Amino acid sequence: MKRFFGWWMAVCVVLAGFCGCGRQVLSVPGFPVDTGAVEAALERAGLSWTVAKEESWAEGQTVCTLHDPEGRMVAIVSSTGEPQGRMLRLAFLPSENDPYGVTVSLSEQDWERVFRFGTILYGGFAGEREVYDAFQTTRAEKSVQLDQEEPLSGARKTYQAITEWSSDIGETCCVVRLGQPSAGSSEFDLTLILFCPVDQ
Prior knowledge:
alpha+beta; eight-stranded antiparallel beta sheet; 29% helix; globular
């Protein structure tokens, strides 16, 4: 009887461990996010970008730029906390004539790490790949084409088409925008990843 009880307890401990792992969620940093949180998320996602500067444009908001190892700007990260509510926006503005100095675009092979970076930085998801996996599996069915406004001359790259994928994952609304440089092209530029509460 004691042998059976010991075996049964061992099975329960193992099962509890598996169940506990399934319930773990990514920690949520303080919002708006600071440079330290951005740097930690970059490192965890395996991105060799650096935070160039951090600014506050309004109460409860921070904005910082991210640069690649060659010093070129690759993204603008903006976040809000109270009183506006928790929101994270990663903007990628690939254009040779962009006034912000963005001169590179992300290859699709980098998208997974970029999604992981945003997912880690926003926090609250079940895992680092949750948003990327949802995007990959539902991209075709959940994407819609957006109407484009005419851009200012030299302000940003124009796209043949812009599509938006949107999905609610738990209590978070996730939005991804892609730009198609030319008609019939199979290549897309990742232009935006946005996270905010579903009810916001």
